[in-house]
Structure formats: C-alpha cells, structure tokens
Design brief:
single chain; alpha+beta; six-stranded antiparallel sheet; 6 helices; elongated
C-alpha cells in the first residue's frame, strides 16, 4: 500500500479532519507530523503531498455536492406545524393521530400537543415543539449530503434537533418552539 493510500485510509474515519481539509483550514505540515506517528512512516513530505492532493480533491467534490444539495433545496418547499410533542416510551400505546417510530425496545411518538396521552409513562417528553417539513423532489433519495447539510446548518445556528426523520421526499425536523423562527428563516433562505 502506498503512503497516499495509508493517509486516505487513516482519514476515512475522521470526519472532522476531512471537513478541515475540505475547507482548506488545516496546517498540512502539522497534520503530516501527527499522521506520521500514527501510520508509522518517516516520510512526512510524502504524507504532506498526499494531504495536499487529497485536500484539493475533497474541495472539488464538496463544491459539486453542495451545488447539488442547494439546487435540490431550491426546488423544495417548507411547511411549519406548531403545537407538536415528542414522547418516548418503553411500551406501545394506541394513537389514532401523529407518527410512531418503533425502535428495538422503545417507541417514539410525534403527536399534536392536544393528543398527548395523560396516563402513559413516558421516558422522555418534549411538549412545546415545532415541526418543519421540507418537501423535496423525488431525487432527494439519490442526492448525498442533504440531511448532513441541513443538520450542520442548524448546528451552526446552535439549534438542537429533537427529532429528525427523512422519508422519501419529506425531511421532518422537530425542534423546540423557541428555535422555530430562527430555523424557519434559515431554511426559507434555501428552499424555493
């Protein structure tokens, strides 16, 4: 295996370093020295050259990926639903409305706040939420990076996502009500 392949394999499971390389904000000399110790080679110049080439490749790929994501989001629409609640339980209960996700040993319910059952023992309950639904063209399923783009964008706005569901053409984001205006403004700048 070449040093370049060793470097790529080493970075494959380090998304924070890949992002720094994509953005061109990493000191390649220092990163070369750190990688040198981890892949056990003495050729820092070969590592640095591999990092430079890989960084350029990542930057081109990121630009194309972001263009596709932004183009797709530009053809999407957004709907806002207030008065939503999220409840996580260890036992299933009958609910005529809302959504239910069946996990291995837990159940996650997304309900209107008025439909929240009173006599169910909840592990976690978020009662004052807003749900934003981004409706996108069908090509959403074949476009890598849309979910990551939205999640990163909201994280940069210091927004905690309570629940996030991506199903076919719908991206459902549940947040605390206090963040709803900020999230709507952020997403509405992207969607058509």
């Amino acid at each position: 295996m070449t040093i370049a392949q060793d470097v790529r394999n080493h970075l494959r499971n380090k998304p924070y370093l890949l992002e720094a390389l994509e953005k061109g904000i990493v000191n390649l000399s220092e990163l070369s020295r750190q990688i040198q110790k981890e892949i056990k080679t003495n050729d820092t110049s070969a590592i640095k050259a591999a990092l430079r080439r890989y960084s350029e490749e990542l930057q081109k790929h990121k630009q194309k990926r972001e263009e596709k994501v932004l183009h797709l989001l530009g053809r999407s629409s957004i709907a806002v639903y207030d008065r939503k609640s999220v409840m996580i339980t260890s036992k299933e209960f009958d609910s005529k409305t809302g959504m239910k996700v069946d996990l291995l040993d837990k159940f996650v319910y997304l309900l209107d706040r008025s439909d929240l059952p009173q006599r169910v023992n909840a592990l976690i309950k978020h009662e004052n939420c807003t749900m934003l639904v981004v409706h996108s063209p069908e090509e959403l399923e074949a476009t890598p990076g849309v979910v990551a783009f939205i999640a990163t964008l909201l994280a940069e706005q210091n927004v905690n996502i309570v629940e996030f569901i991506s199903c076919w053409t719908e991206t459902i984001i549940v947040i605390e009500k206090k963040d709803s205006l900020k999230v709507y403004e952020t997403l509405s700048n992207l969607v058509g």
